Amino acid sequence: MYEAIFRIRGAEGYAAATAGTDARIELWCNDHCDLLHVTDGAAEETLARVEASLGVRESLRREGELVVVTERCLKERDPTHVERYLAEHDCLLVPPLRYAEGAKFCRLLALDPAALTACYRDLIDDGFDVSVEAKREIESVRPDAPLLTIEEVLPTLTARQREAFTTAYEQGYYAIPRETSTAAIAEAVGVERRTAEEHLRRAENKLVAALVPYL
Fold it and tell me: Which of 34, 70, 80, 99 is least surrounded by Cβ atoms within 10 Å, i.e. has the fewest?
């Protein structure tokens, strides 16, 4: 079995709510309604979009996140949904759909890698702005977590957060003893020291929050 993650830019649905932000939206489709989980700042815009287009059956809030059950399914109103292409090429969509950085991320499975390639080519031919973020063969399946990958565990970092964090690591910021300073990291990435420190703190907070449940 083979797995691929497609990134679709310019997608409708909730992609626009995440553009230019750290927001992440996950969507589980139940045919008659959707379940949404929203984190990192897109709650108000997403809720407004849902109320205007699909209706809200129920919503739950707490600091930093929002859970919404919709009245209707987004698939009925989203011309960028990919189910038709999946059916034509015997591919499976693994929920949830993810929206981040202004794009939609679809995780697909197929018994034959050629099916994933054909699905990708059809999307391109029909004008979709799509790229393949990852592709791999699944060699073993664990019953308790059959499809868990590092991509599923790691949070979405912005380009600036990723650059600051990787630069800090490469320069020895996390070594013992510490081999660099935030001022040196800021100079390396071309921003002010306080800006670099803010990017580092946000990246560290996201990574710690994502990894602690698996320790």
Answer: 80
Residue owning tokens 């050629």: 114
Strand partners, 65: 39, 62
The tens-digit pLDDT sequence of the chain (215 residues) is 898 999 998 766 678 778 777 778 888 888 788 888 888 667 777 788 788 878 888 888 877 788 889 888 887 777 667 778 998 999 998 888 888 888 889 989 999 999 999 999 999 999 989 999 888 887 754 444 444 455 556 778 888 999 999 999 999 999 999 999 999 999 999 999 999 999 999 999 989 887 776 56
Q: How far apart are CA 209 and CA 22, in angstroms?
A: 15
How many angstroms separate the CA atoms of 9 and 30, rounded? 24
Q: Is the peptide bond before 96 cis (omega within 30 degrees of 0)?
A: yes
Residue 52, classified by CB atoms within 10 Å of its CB into exposed (0-12), middle (13-18) or buried (19+), is: exposed
127 CB burial (10 A radius; 0-12, 13-18, 19+): exposed
